[in-house]
Here is the input.
Amino acid sequence: MLTKVLRGARARVKGSALHSMLVRLGVTNIARKLYERRLLRDGVHRVTMLGHSLEFAVTSTREIHRIDSFHFEQSFVSRILDALQPGDVVYDVGANIGMISCLVAASGRERGVVVHSIEPEDRNAAALRRNSQLNALTNLQVHELALGDESGTAELHVSGEAGEGTHSIIEGGSPDSHPITIQIASGEDFMGRDAPPPDVVKIDVEGFEMSVLKGLAPALDAGTVRDLFIEIHPTLLEQVGSSAEELRAWLRERGYRSVWCEQPKLEAHEHFRKAP
Here is the structure.
């Protein structure tokens, strides 16, 4: 009950003149710590996202922050939910702790939608499995690997706690990052072995976007993928000799057009749809 009261009070005053005053007085920091301490003691964060009640296991403040920052992605995720059709196969590539995966699976379970959550970092994948179980999402499958254009292994540069959301195969991120070895499956191998070709794909892979897309080229060329939702990281793409413009041009060559784009931060959220 106290957790719910603290969460409600925080939502009501956020952005108001009262909130600014409380920040100056240091009250918000105290309230935030009480709120986080309570959630960590409970071990579960209960939230409502786009009309769906969900539970997420929390073992760190970073996981709490990631869940509470959902409003930054709300319009992006809302478009994913609106694009779902009965029986769809959805790939969530770079699923992190499963916030979007769980919401998509919960929204589509009565219509036969199946979500394949693809996450290579072991702590995130473990949290994703817990969250799927907490919400009884039998239509969600977790794959602890990355997708790319070739199967093999790679070094993932990891920093911070589970749920950080900034792990990348590209070097040069956080100075406190350390490499771990992960498995990579080419999209073609994955589709032939682990899951049927997707109807809807969401990609958030911190600069590895082109490699993921090239691995999925057989499904894209065949028009199997109807809707693509990509978080594009221009700066990281440039570090691997690519660009957001190249990504968009590559998709246009395969008959995909941008139907919506939003840039809340340095990254862009973009929705591509197969042209009729």
Remarks:
- The chain has a mean pLDDT of 88.
